[in-house]
Protein 1
Amino acid sequence: MDFLSGFFTGFLGQLQSPTLGFLIGGMIVAACNSQLQIPDAVYKFIVFMLLIKVGLSGGIAIRNANLAEMLLPAAFAVAVGLIIVFIGRYTLAKLPNVKVVDAIATAGLFGAVSGSTLAAALTLLEEQGIEYEAWAAALYPFMDIPALVGAIVLASIYTRKQRESFKEEFPSKQPVAAGDYAGEDNYPTTRQEYLNMQHGGASKKVEIWPIVKESLQGSALSALLLGLALGLLTRPESVYESFFNPLFRGLLSILMLVMGMEATARLGELRKVAQWYAVYAFIAPLLHGFIAFGFGMIAHALTGFSLGGVVILSVIAASSSDISGPPTLRAGIPSANPSAYIGASTAVGTPVAIAIGIPLYIGLAQAFMGG
Amino acid sequence: MDFLSGFFTGFLGQLQSPTLGFLIGGMIVAACNSQLQIPDAVYKFIVFMLLIKVGLSGGIAIRNANLAEMLLPAAFAVAVGLIIVFIGRYTLAKLPNVKVVDAIATAGLFGAVSGSTLAAALTLLEEQGIEYEAWAAALYPFMDIPALVGAIVLASIYTRKQRESFKEEFPSKQPVAAGDYAGEDNYPTTRQEYLNMQHGGASKKVEIWPIVKESLQGSALSALLLGLALGLLTRPESVYESFFNPLFRGLLSILMLVMGMEATARLGELRKVAQWYAVYAFIAPLLHGFIAFGFGMIAHALTGFSLGGVVILSVIAASSSDISGPPTLRAGIPSANPSAYIGASTAVGTPVAIAIGIPLYIGLAQAFMGG
Amino acid sequence: MDFLSGFFTGFLGQLQSPTLGFLIGGMIVAACNSQLQIPDAVYKFIVFMLLIKVGLSGGIAIRNANLAEMLLPAAFAVAVGLIIVFIGRYTLAKLPNVKVVDAIATAGLFGAVSGSTLAAALTLLEEQGIEYEAWAAALYPFMDIPALVGAIVLASIYTRKQRESFKEEFPSKQPVAAGDYAGEDNYPTTRQEYLNMQHGGASKKVEIWPIVKESLQGSALSALLLGLALGLLTRPESVYESFFNPLFRGLLSILMLVMGMEATARLGELRKVAQWYAVYAFIAPLLHGFIAFGFGMIAHALTGFSLGGVVILSVIAASSSDISGPPTLRAGIPSANPSAYIGASTAVGTPVAIAIGIPLYIGLAQAFMGG
């Protein structure tokens, strides 16, 4: 029962973290009918600040990494990030009453990486004396950013298809496109409705590339990729260390507050499907970690990628982001219900990844070492 | 004449402090017809940031305090905070030509606590070798927050009553309710007009609880209480230390600038009543301190609350806030004239509390020790 | 070829600096038709924060300086700052196809001072063992602020004159006045058009003082002068060190991003005149430095101002600001094209000042010492 106690300690710690505290605070504020509001202009700027920071830190990490040596593991990280999103798209999103955009956003969050889970794994590896490449931790942006971009693009494609078929039937209404900031979009997007619409018409082909392009031009991915490019190509360390990084946690807490205020209104949507999210959030981290472990072992066989590095790749895949994910998904898939993806990640996914995933992959690596 | 020189040194120091400097700067900018403006969205966010921080620091202080041991002094602190507001309501607000909302806001500010006055008292107590409980300084939020909440609720009740009677006579106009951010409300609220209206009609009962509830739901108290709850129930120290606390002084200086810009236009309103504010600001700190001293002595007799602690309770009561008060009152009682309450506090109240109040209560405590 | 390699090292370093990185990033984002935007309210507040900081740091520097001793050099610094603006007004602005407001803004930027260029000069002076007065570096606000104020006033006068003559011919349209924040003003202001208009009518006198007054009341100069006054007359060090200064670099990078996004659309305007800006940006720093060197030698002869101080005055004149200049000019002369003045300064002016100017003035001073 050691991991159960570890699980609950992790769970309680999460509940008291400022991130979740502000989220729940926002929910209570909204439930009390408070008039508290964060002005829209400030909110948009906060999202911009968060996304630029996520991009910058990824870009700086990649620039400082040894790209030649880490080529294969990095490519595998990209692949795993995208695979995770597709798994969510074709499992969670297909469950009854689960809204497709909520499921895609959740999959994106589970594909993105949690820095604190990664830090826990590094600490444990060192305690166990398992060696790993110094650059292995820098693999995280190679999984984090493709997963988030992939989820946003997938959601855009889905929303566009819906819009096309919706237009044919109800030409006057105009649902909001994914890829823009904010906007309250209560557009009905359960799988059932989707199926109904498919019947109604619109099984015609939607072109993918214009949607990808439009997603990348949206304010969310623009900010993320701008930060990435600046981190890669210029020397923004001074401004990153003195401005974007120190403000990050605080601005994130305010974002969480806003998301909490919105979540209250949409919590009811989840009543019928909460069990599916719980199941997904329990299984997905472990499954994602095993997939990454498999890819890692291929790199181990081909290029001598260390077993410690394989564990790190697995933990990166098993973790779900409470940092880069929420702002990116909130801005990139505004129609998705934040209660769904944040709830699944913080309440179940992260404790599972830390308490079950990390010991599991380390044990597995040690078994291979002995073998 | 030692305390006179102390008084003037304190007074001059106050004038050069950034807080007052930005207030006067704002007044001059407005007097020069400058087009300088702080955008409304940013202003609202700044007020939110300040109120959350005030709440968080209060909540953290209470959480870290030994509640069982400090129960009676804490209850007395709450009582004194509310008594101070009622004293202002039934003295200053009744003076000729003094606007009732201005008087209530001023009383709220004098009930709130100044951290720097408190720090000065602690230094002196240590120099004199007077012992006090380690948690005594943590009594401040128990007086600070009830005084501010009390003032806002009292102002809401008054404004609502006015609105009711006003409606009966002039059904078309709609004064702004207290409890909302901002809004220029030049609604005539002198005692004289109030009395006239009372004659005109509307002595019927106004229900209190809906107004209290509405005040608590207003953006000002929501933010304050949200911060308090987060400070009490979660562990927001990391985000408090890295974000809300370091930004506080700077954001406060910008709030002061905005308040100064508004003050210019409303300085004229005070010409006829400035003497009443001066008298109040001189007497009130000393009176409040004596009341708290009395309550403190009761706790001393009943539970052995130290005499040093009694001094601290008195100084907390004597001090008037230049930190938590202005943003809370500006947002919670938008129709009150900031020149009135900030002028009374910084120009007279704070120097009196520091130069006369602190030595007085220490001398009194030493007299009791000797006795 | 030593200075050529120094020139190119400086040039490449500039390209990777966060300041220029964000500018180019903004240009690329806009070129990709991204929907990324900084909300207007936040943008205005960022400009305010930057200008207050520039003013505060100038005011604090002047307050801490020995005014009596530095009187003559300070007066000369003011004179050189204004002369630089007038030189630009009557050389660059008279070149074919160069827009007058762009030229005035560029001259203002070249009159303003770069802290990093100044720091480079101080380092070199100390390496060479050349003595200078401790207050010499505090001369910078005496040149910086008059140059920026002068440029904004000159641009206002020009724009007003244009408006007057424009009104006579086309009474309905209303170009935006300089001195206000933002506003897209594509009002045609090439010298040619100006001459055409002069022909058309309106050679009547425009009154100067109302325009100066209006410029000073504009939000840009109000914020700058408010900061200056607060720095001079109060003790804002605590709030400056904890708030305005640490946020400066980060907020500047966001301003640069916005300016880059705007620049893309207006880069085409510069195609025909880029060579004039290149010529100006190469010659002007050296010329400005020589003028200041002459003034410095007068002070050397009259009051014994040190030769090291003369070098510092020259470097202050030769440098062009990448810190105080862009936000001030963007807000004060909104119709000027940022690509013109920032491009001229960062791409050519600053490398020339550092790689050619500093060694030149030090060599000159050493020649006088030997003589």
Protein 2
Amino acid sequence: MNGIHLIADLYRCGGTAVALTQRDALERLCVDECRDAGLTPLGASFYQFLDADGDAAGVTGTVVLAESHLAIHTWPESGNVTLDVYVCNFSRDNSDRARHVYRRVLDALQPEDAVEYEVVRGSLSGEN
Amino acid sequence: MNGIHLIADLYRCGGTAVALTQRDALERLCVDECRDAGLTPLGASFYQFLDADGDAAGVTGTVVLAESHLAIHTWPESGNVTLDVYVCNFSRDNSDRARHVYRRVLDALQPEDAVEYEVVRGSLSGEN
């Protein structure tokens, strides 16, 4: 369980707009970036919100990783997004891989402003 | 995106042992507690880890909610678990619902020790 959890609240994202509104695009971005970073996606669950007219209006989703998870939620009406990337270091140190995914998703979304936190998980567990 | 994110690292859980090792039991616990709290599960992705003998050896999973997500990972060899419950308050204040789910899962797992964090998400977003 020992590892890092990167947390971001992203405001007025000006990047890949389709990723904020289209489930398939956001899922592909997140899964591909996890895989490219050397993490191991085991499953993904992404849901498409629709507005009153039936148009795409936000996405919520998670990627389950062998190393823990990524979670992302979008509010395209404001361009805001929340992002979580938590990886444990059970069999190896995955911290750099987590930072890589996190940075790549931020690069794609290009927020004007971000509030970021980093939480050390499993701080009492030693190497487990 | 404005809401609360409850984070726990749980040590030496002595509660429902089957929930630490069996995917179906853990998924049912998490989905049912979300639903019972009045949250809205939209999907779930839970994965069963196996040990070298092919026996159940930990679970990793997420519940995607209309209100954001729950994520949980277990290490039954030590009884350790990480839990995240993040709910946004887009259409109503869901904070009490998040605390209810969080408390119910902790009650089921009965950790001997816990390190807990609470992160206010979307602090710059007003009511969005």
Protein 3
Amino acid sequence: MTLAISARRLADLLGPSRGTGPAYRELADLIRLLVVDGRVADGTRLPSERELAAALGVSRTTTTRVYAELRGTGLLTSRQGSGSVVSIPISASSASSLIITPDDADTIALTYSAPVGPPGLARAFEIAATKLPGLLTTTGYLPDGLPTLREILAQHYTDGGLPTDPDQIIVTSGAMGAVSLLARALLAPGQRVIVEGASYPHAHESFAAAGGRLTALPIDTTPWNPAALRSALEGSPHRAAYIVPDFHNPTAAVMSDEERVAWARELRRHDVVPVVDESLREINLDGVDLPPVFATYDPRALLIGSSSKSYWGGLRVGWIRAPKAAIMPIVQARMMDDIGSSAFDQLVLAELLTEGGQTAAAGRARLRAARDHLLAELARELPDIKAPCPAGGLSLWVTLPDRMSSRLTTAAGRHGLLLTPGPRFFTHSGSVGERHLRLPYTQSHETLSEAVRRLRIAYDDVVSDIASGPDHGRSDTLELIA
Amino acid sequence: MTLAISARRLADLLGPSRGTGPAYRELADLIRLLVVDGRVADGTRLPSERELAAALGVSRTTTTRVYAELRGTGLLTSRQGSGSVVSIPISASSASSLIITPDDADTIALTYSAPVGPPGLARAFEIAATKLPGLLTTTGYLPDGLPTLREILAQHYTDGGLPTDPDQIIVTSGAMGAVSLLARALLAPGQRVIVEGASYPHAHESFAAAGGRLTALPIDTTPWNPAALRSALEGSPHRAAYIVPDFHNPTAAVMSDEERVAWARELRRHDVVPVVDESLREINLDGVDLPPVFATYDPRALLIGSSSKSYWGGLRVGWIRAPKAAIMPIVQARMMDDIGSSAFDQLVLAELLTEGGQTAAAGRARLRAARDHLLAELARELPDIKAPCPAGGLSLWVTLPDRMSSRLTTAAGRHGLLLTPGPRFFTHSGSVGERHLRLPYTQSHETLSEAVRRLRIAYDDVVSDIASGPDHGRSDTLELIA
């Protein structure tokens, strides 16, 4: 498999050029970012130095230095006859630290939105431990899940107005485990999937990895414009639609009742299966009224829930709620996958779901306080950044005063703050999303304050760089910082 | 995607016909078995009644009754213009009960080989619980695994003679989680994978689901004939080879030092990545000398280990040990998969690996006793069945006196004993494997005794059916039992 990226496409991903000066360092940083966050895949052949120089409107000397710098840090290898190829040589821990969690205690990562364990979680583990002996006498082999947990989850849906039998529940390894399992169970290679224009990127990648072709709808005032859906469905046949209707990631939008009605009608009419990620639904921080779950509108819907978002990232238990007729192919697909989820984690979740909701409430209270703290810090330190208050979910979706998200991300990285640039959330990326940044509020107040302090320094760097204009070039400023 | 199976292929899967009498019931049972264990996929169009009758050498009346019976139990739907299509209508619990675990306490399932928790496991959970508080203050988000556990696993390999850095370990969701993750990380659609002729079927399905084309080597005196490998590799380019060299599943064979040397040489020469499932290596019941792990022979090898096999099926923690350069694409693939494994299960495994080995030893002692018990019961009740004693692993691989594995499986099902028919383990199945049966010894002595009692009744049914010969037909007998 040979991957290549055209000069035009790479220039598009790098965003508008700001000058013809020696901007090589910043360009190298931006390319590194594209590789690290997966927008340019390992093994991709980059355009020639000459082509890239032309596409960016910079000198050949600049692109030569960019490639030399990338080769120097081992990110680019030059192969006889095949040009310059991206290769990721870094070790596992440093690689994943760039994607997810920092190696060193000084670095702050706002690149993921998994909550720390809320007060009360340790108690749920203790109670689960008292139930362990009965389970240890079994093989613990639970491809569709612990029966008790399936009953509790079914009752939870039934109580919420959606009659559900335990047979309609499959326990999975987190919400992502559910997404990737459904992607594989549903899709034959080449089948099309409707997705929101912006979303959790790993979910979209999972559908693509299963052979799906993604049709990303535009995001204007809502990610769920029914007219856009109709037009896409009339254009070509689709197999499934993946949506996050409750506190949509990353925008925090909630799909309205009218949109749900319209979507259910269109999807049914075109025989498209709704895959509905409701893993953020329980993180309703302000207790707003949410429309019913999507299966109320379309009984064919496959619903996804998760404890990793509502309780703790280390609790790898999610679930799928499906119509009975859809269950069997999913369980069969799971046998080629991870077979089953942690038996003990399932005991813990069963306890959390029956204790009366106090741990979930404690988790929400903590997140609400963290959200408000982050909003206050941003308002004080970075008033240029517009940060609307989300009613639920785990992160802010802020608007920057300029198209600077990737540059802000690279600048922040130099100050020990890892961010995910806005374009990463857009499926047909290009430089869409450069005005946005997702800022999770799942960490402590102290960490969030320090993160905002570093963000402010990075922001000032980028702004002074922009202010210095094309003649001064961007790299001069950035080299002073590095 | 339309699937279809030819009359010839279906007749091949059903095995040799034994008469022209009203054998419809047994044929229906055999087809049901093929569907339930996945050899005929959900949604497959069956041949016409006329074509199947001709291929089986039975009357058209018989195949008409077979299809009517399958329609009656809801396994076959007749669609206008598209013939008779397999559709699995059964609920999740009853479906998975057929594949894996029984719904009712009276049914015994010898269809899977996950061990119950050994003595000492509860204690490991208790100790892990004391370490939980430190983890709860983090997000528990561990895409490459709990650092402590990775260090312990790396030290384990280093102590065993294979120097390993913690960065070379990725913790996964069981061995199957590792297999499916590697299948997706390694393969582009259409790439070929060398596999043993018989193996754990879900592993092979996982490579196929990732787009791989399987080249199954023949099994003669060994699953690893170097000449067969050489011939396959010279025939066409391959990307990877998946092997189970230690207590191979299902044959319990161990790859010799000479075979490892020859395989490593051939795989290196043809640039084929070894994916080596060592999840049964620690279940060395008789303490036999095993050759070193495969990475000692070929440093490019990706090694797979698991706690689900060595300790408990409910502990969903496996791992991959890889060269540093191979780690990054695997971690990236994992981000589209299940993201991370249960944090608590990882604490438990870390404890089990540092306590000095007593829980693992207790588990092996229990398995050894169960193995010997099953062998003794079989020798007494079913002396016609040849059951060699495996030096390790979780199951016997027995030889039947006739090609009867599928018929024995259907007959046993009527007596409350679920088996996996031999052909299920053969990748290019047909009726290969009809002389074999895998019998796991992971359950209690009482259960194993009762299983052998039921197996004996089923065996007597099948033998008297065979003895009654073609003129009497098989279904007469079987209908009496049903």
Protein 4
Amino acid sequence: MRIWKTGAIAAAMLPLAIAQALAAGKDVSSAEVQYQAGSSPLANVEMYQDINPKAPPLTKAEFDKARQIYFERCAGCHGVLRKGATGKPLTPDKTLAAGTDYLKVFIKYGSPAGMPNWGTSGELSDDEVDLMARYIQQTPPQPPEYGLKDMKATWKVIVPPEARPKKKMNNYNLENIFSTTLRDAGEIALIDGDTKKIISIIKTGYAVHISRMSASGRYLFVIGRDAKINMIDLWMEKPDNVAEIRVGLEARSVETSKFKGYEDKLAIAGTYWPPQYVIMNGDTLEPLKIMATRGMTVGEQEFHPEPRVASIVASHYKPEFVVNVKETGKSLMVNYSNLNEITTKEIPVSKFLHDGGLDSSKRYFMVAANQSNQVGAIDLKDGTLAGLIDVGKIPHPGRGANFTHPKYGPVWATGHLGDETIALIGTDPAKHKQYAWKMVESLKGPGGGALFVKSHPKSKNLWSDAPLNPDPKISQSIVVYDINNLAAGYKTLPIGEWSGIKDDGAKRVVQPEYNKAGDEVWFSVWSAKNKESAIVVVDDKTLKLKAVIKDPRLITPTGHFNVYNTQHDVY
Amino acid sequence: MRIWKTGAIAAAMLPLAIAQALAAGKDVSSAEVQYQAGSSPLANVEMYQDINPKAPPLTKAEFDKARQIYFERCAGCHGVLRKGATGKPLTPDKTLAAGTDYLKVFIKYGSPAGMPNWGTSGELSDDEVDLMARYIQQTPPQPPEYGLKDMKATWKVIVPPEARPKKKMNNYNLENIFSTTLRDAGEIALIDGDTKKIISIIKTGYAVHISRMSASGRYLFVIGRDAKINMIDLWMEKPDNVAEIRVGLEARSVETSKFKGYEDKLAIAGTYWPPQYVIMNGDTLEPLKIMATRGMTVGEQEFHPEPRVASIVASHYKPEFVVNVKETGKSLMVNYSNLNEITTKEIPVSKFLHDGGLDSSKRYFMVAANQSNQVGAIDLKDGTLAGLIDVGKIPHPGRGANFTHPKYGPVWATGHLGDETIALIGTDPAKHKQYAWKMVESLKGPGGGALFVKSHPKSKNLWSDAPLNPDPKISQSIVVYDINNLAAGYKTLPIGEWSGIKDDGAKRVVQPEYNKAGDEVWFSVWSAKNKESAIVVVDDKTLKLKAVIKDPRLITPTGHFNVYNTQHDVY
């Protein structure tokens, strides 16, 4: 398992620790680590560093190096302010008490609870382990805040609304376009779902996390990990950026207003740092209203200084966004009908809210509280928590998958980072009351590390990937279940093989996404080792290979979003 | 003006800087300083102090002494976290740039903009000035947070509800009781308004800031500067504490639920530190819901880490509290009908919200944004900002004074700390639309430093004190206007003389408060020098002395609250 020792692989997609942990039968909450890990834009932000008189000394050069490592490797789980998130707090009161030797052992060898073995995995040298042990005994430096003035300084209207096309100027079938993140290139590719050809490559922020559509389907919004938002006009002859803004230092989520009468009017983004969200003009990205998320945790009601904004969903029932705040475990229902005197309803759910999606009726938002091993069901019509369901270890649904179960009726599915199951939750309190908000079934998958499950109203299949699984046979494959015969278990499709990319042990297949018709499923395949990639298209009915899209411009394709399905929340 | 050099006088009530500034015709925004100054409970909280490698050295002993001075003298204007409030920010990036010598001059000599001359006034020695200049170049230590667990550890139900009297067990006319703060004693005195005798002295937190009544008039709530709340049952044979809780480290406000159906059900308190508010069970003070106020400032939308909760008012129109947040300048309308999934409407007003009161209809909350020289009118029925009125320098209304102006109809009055005027604002958009939300008249007072104005629906008088005025003739008197003949100017009543306390140049008279009948006005008089005090009662119609209440137990009486008027918001 030491093939990654050379560090040739981007951290985010090669979870050695999980590999080892899974192989040893250990708890794989460190999947969270690797899932979170990867270069953080905060690593390069100059921060003021005090000297803690009680801590071992550190030179300025050592501070800077350690701070960079901290934000790149550790902040994802331990927090920017080191107050703890899914990982434990690392504030000086605790770390000084532990002492350098204890900390070095922990950092070097990891722990069964999920701390990666940064030292013995080869990720950090012994000197670096010692450096980090000393660094975390110092006061955490605080990154700068980022308010309206900072946002406005980065806001650009590249093509003002009045200068944009009055009608669609191209012949593309916009609804079947796929927006594909080219992670390491800081770009997205727009791929024509009909012809399977690349329409354009567009410059964006770094490692675009998600794509979202405006309600009309004309505008595409993407947000990079660096909190840069790009707004793309699909009506242009060659679709390209019409506006951009940077809304913070690190982010994951963007969304647009979907309530009737507000189509294309507003956009919203949430940031990891600073912990806040901003509502913008949907036509220009002009920042209008910023709201901080620092507040009290669900249950214990202790103040958390760094509650990151995870997913955001737009309600179809009210002029509201639902902003999910990770460390406080609260879903904030934000009413955008009055942005000046703004009303917010705060729903306590469960800590570590992360991703989620609507149920098939679109009335309920199913959100994973990942390290709490729970899923919350938020009733968007009544503005209340309808249910809180215990599921498996570290649910990771993406937006989840809706289908009609032969026995249980409408269900929503999620895979798990921490075990090999797929949980099915009943979502129909009207006609299937006895199953609503319960885990009605748990499907067995090939092994843990599932990132995305997917289905489609027109499909009889439930798909799941497992890119964080240590076994290459699994991480390079996709499994598919027949919804009408779940007891038969899953079929495995060798997507990695079908991609035609050489078998170098480093290929990963991720994120099933349907086309508009619901008869094709698209997968991203890439190998970080030999830097080859492909998009594999499978026929949803026959389960046979339909097409392989290869293009040297497709650098590290990760998430892809079909315009129609994203616009209408079809999944 | 050097009589205070000996430091024998409590800082809060002897504003030498204002005296000198006023005498020199300077801006008296330093009235805010003295108004805020005084012992802070935070001064004694042990805090972790880092060493700033760029700053001049400081020993641990020096740190502790400087930190204490900082919280006692400086935090009121510069903030606990030194990010600035009414005073400028004092964070290391700024103070290091200024350097020790510059800072020493500033601290020693003050500035025309309102910084007191701590050195030349004799408040701080040269060594202490040097100490403080060095201290503020270090990183501000952060006081601890204070969450549910901390509150519960201090929460005591001294007499559980079931053990309390089922009917009133004494013969006092409860509605005419006065709750009087005995500031330095950490007590309140309950005084029988009919007999003018002390009913009981009750132990409370330090320097009780205000008293508030439950909707039924049975329970009295007081909050000390140290954030300790005491709940007193007036039905007991000898009224005394039945519950207590400490809700933070420093506070100013407490209130109870007044909407129909919620009488006596809930209480709320807001804190300066931590910046948050807590809603409690109105029967036992059990803490139920804590909400943080850290957020973006009105207008510039920059993050403020320490927005203190100033006044809180209870709406009669909806099940809502209005929580006024100082540094962000926002009034939060908090709906208490659902404490679990809680809805808040955030009204941007103007920075430096502080005190205020209802208009005569009780529909509008008039709140002073003091250092912005403005008053906001919050419509409690429609949940919106009805008006924002420019007034004089640093309005300080207390709860203000409502009366019917012969020309302008219903008006609300506020005095000012920074000039000698009383502003009258029209409050009747229904029948006097042209005057609503405008300053219709500005009365001339005897000199600045007015803390409280007062009137009563049954009275033809408007009263004002001026305890922060440097001229003892003024600070020891009270002025009164005839509402029907405002042009005639004010009459002066020598309350200080009437109190019978020796003339030592250190007497101050403060806070006119009516009795239930509206025919008596009560004043607190005290001399910090010879530690004598009295309560002077004046006949509202004849303007003649009616009674003087003296009792050795009346130690530093400051604010007093008539039960009936406080219960029903009569002012």
